[in-house]
Amino acid sequence: MNNVTRPPRPVELEDGRAMPKEGGVVFNGSKGKLMCGVYGDSPRLVPEKLMQEYKRPEKTLPRVKDAHEQDWVNAAKEGRQPGAHFGYSGPLTETCLLGNIAIRADTRIEWDADNMRVTNNDKANQYVRAPYREGWSL
After folding, report:
1. 44 membership: H or E segment, kind and range
2. What pLDDT, on the 0 to 100 scale, is given for residue 107?
3. How far is CA 13 from the centre of its chain?
4. Average pLDDT, whole number, for the chain?
5. For residue 71, what is the enclosing H or E element?
6. C-alpha to C-alpha distances, 19 to 10, 16, 33, 50, 90, nearest whole angstrom
7. For position 128, what pLDDT does the model report?
8. Do residues 64 and 73 lie in contact, with contact meaning Cβ atoms separated by under 8 Å?
9. 59/118 Cα distance (integer angstroms)
């Protein structure tokens, strides 16, 4: 593997401080970097000095009290939009699956969402749609 799908170790990351394990993320921002685990676990600013100086904003978005599945059921019963409605969770899932395609193809990919295809690597498109067994279809 040529590691084009793995984040490089940030220069600002202090010696002895580990990168996120498999599935972790490094976000590059205009004021620093943010690292977290696969599910957004343990988000930390880089360098650590920025983390120590950071002041959390007030919470303004509604929080899911139970599991997202239960929130979906409760939202249906209460006539409201769930926290992870399809308008949010559909594009999020697409993004996660595209990350899997980039890892399997071991390359950076460019995505045409309207046509549901990778535009810069035809071989990567084999991972977009699975062939169905005879007699099965969607």
Report:
1. strand 44-46
2. 92
3. 21
4. 89
5. helix 68-78
6. 9, 10, 12, 17, 28
7. 95
8. no
9. 37
Asked if 26 contacts 7 with a C-beta cutoff of 8 angstroms, the reply is: yes
**Contact 105/127 with Cβ under 8 angstroms?**
yes
CA angle 98/9/105 to nearest 5° reads 25
The tokens 């899911």 sit on which residue?
Answer: 64
**Rounded Cα–Cα distance for residues 91 and 118 (Å):** 16
pLDDT tens per residue, range 45-73: 999 999 999 999 999 988 888 898 999 99
Q: Is the pLDDT of residue 34 over 90?
A: yes
Domain coordinates of the chain in residue numbers?
1-52, 68-127
Token pair, residue 4, equals 């084009």
